[in-house]
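Researcher: Next sequence.
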Amino acid sequence: MLFTDRADAGKRLARQLASLRGENVVVLGLPRGGVPVAFEVAEGLGAPLDVIVVRKLGLPVQPELAMGAVGEGGILIVNHEVVRRSRVSSEDVAAAERRERQELERQAGRFRAGRPRVGVGGRTAVLVDDGIATGSTARAACQVARGAGAARVIMTAPVGAPGSASALRDSGSCDEVHLLRAPSSFSAVGEWYADFTPVSDAEVTSLLERAAQARPEHVSR
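Model: Next structure:
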């Protein structure tokens, strides 16, 4: 299965999650790439949309490989196996955390453009990314949703590594994981998209604004 782009993937994911329509759901996109997917899921479910801001902690010598993640609410996830194998010091982890928390705060403020966070307390939180590789960012996002009081946390993505999905389920970070594709040959999220153009801050902000205008009664929670 090859997705045309993130919008196409989101529409397909929404169809798989159709049983949630009519429930007390809030859709939370992981910026940046998860938000265009989440926008289509929210449209398909008739649910409000917000971001759940988390930042990957990349290895000092290989930034694209996550050694952990940080999320809103002071959440810190460290992949101790990656840290051990890469011989990363605690000082390196702390420096990455400081740097990414600054960016997290900047992103959250810009994306919401002064709007309050959509309330997730007592609701089903459907977290959406464009793919799950190591699972560190997804795990942090799930913990942020739980910390905000979500009654049920569902992590979703069009494609992901089978081992990472299983680890998410086994860790108890979320109640359910839904993937359209979990290929044994998984190596990178972008390989499953014909168009995997990077998503800009402006695109994320625009999609959130469109969603807020469509369902303003939800955004004021």
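Model: Residues 217-221 have pLDDT under 50 and may be disordered. Strands lie at 25-29, 49-51, 54-59, 62-71, 75-78, 124-128, 152-159, 176-181.
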